[in-house]
Design brief:
Layout lengths: L8 H32 L6 H19 L3 H22 L9 H23 L15 E3 L4 E3 H23 L1 H11 L1 H6 L4 H23 L14 H11 L4 H21 L7 H12 L10
Antiparallel strand pairs: 1-2
């Protein structure tokens, strides 16, 4: 295939791998964003900031407490999810009955505050975070060299996305969540504590973003701007997949990553804009997104 496309196999598969890795992070981040919007109807502009906090959380656990990657992969999302609970109770719960614009502006302000605090404390220089010893090195596949940690990222991303989809679409809790988006009063009439369910949903969304941040720390340098640089792309991914669609967010994340990777090989100048071109095409052809529900 690489020869048919007029490209050396090493370059072709290398770009596919790069796109797949980026797509794995796009999928994990857009998944959390889709959950929050689909269930809470909040356009969460602070999502990139929670991704950044996840990366910094792993870095701080390592450098201040000596806690390695594997415990941090569990502890950091739980800590950030708890912070999400506090933010939801203090700020967002007052905005659910208002126009979407209020939630967007509030979360945008939160993102600026969080980013500003970390910039003040750590500057904007990248901070290194080592790949865990068990995942260092790689495998020579003949046509390319596959780093172990990057293969691990893709595998975990697929498992996480499938697990989240199963939770939302195939479990009783997911049924309650979906019902809450349709008719909160009816769900409350069945004795379900809707405020707790909403808080848990927001915590799940930001926890997924923090998990992605921990996974990203060994690949990308940890810095306060890492979430800011991604959030616009993630919103485009969610729009392409369909606002609120779990399956759409996941598949669109990988699709955008692969398209972006191949674009870097053939026409690098367009690699930073191809996702938005794709978004515009999808909005023209199917405004609800590839997997979104028609209004």
């Amino acid at each position: 295939m690489a020869e048919l496309l007029g490209m050396p196999p090493q370059l072709f598969f290398g770009q596919l791998l790069l796109g797949l890795i980026n797509g794995a992070f796009y999928a994990m981040l857009s998944l959390g964003l889709a959950i929050i919007f689909g269930m809470l109807q909040i356009v969460n502009f602070a999502h990139g900031a929670t991704y950044m906090v996840g990366a910094f959380g792993a870095w701080m656990l390592m450098n201040y407490l000596g806690i390695g990657f594997w415990p941090a992969l569990i502890l950091t999302p739980l800590i950030v999810a708890l912070l999400g609970v506090i933010l939801e109770r203090l700020v967002l719960k007052h905005l659910y009955n208002l126009d979407h614009l209020y939630g967007m502006l509030a979360t945008f302000g939160l993102a600026l505050i969080i980013e500003g605090l970390f910039r003040q404390a750590y500057g904007i220089s990248g901070l290194p975070y080592e790949i865990p010893t068990q995942l260092q090195g790689g495998t020579n596949l003949g046509f390319m060299f596959l780093p172990n940690y990057r293969a691990f990222v893709v595998l975990i991303s697929i498992i996480l996305c499938f697990g989240t989809w199963y939770l939302i679409e195939r479990t009783k809790m997911g049924m309650y969540l979906r019902a809450t988006t349709e008719n909160r009063e009816l769900v409350r009439a069945f004795g379900i504590k809707v405020p707790r369910l909403v808080t848990a949903t927001f915590a799940l969304g930001v926890g997924l973003a923090a998990f992605a941040g921990v996974m990203a720390a060994p690949i990308y340098q940890v810095n306060p701007l890492m979430g800011n640089n991604l959030i616009i792309v993630i919103f485009a991914v969610v729009v392409i997949g369909g606002m609120g669609s779990i399956l759409g967010a996941t598949l669109a994340g990988y699709l955008v990553g692969l398209v972006e990777g191949l674009t870097k090989a053939y026409y690098p100048e367009a690699s930073s804009t191809v996702v938005f071109i794709l978004m515009i095409i999808v909005l023209i052809v199917r405004p609800s997104g590839l997997f979104g529900k028609e209004q």
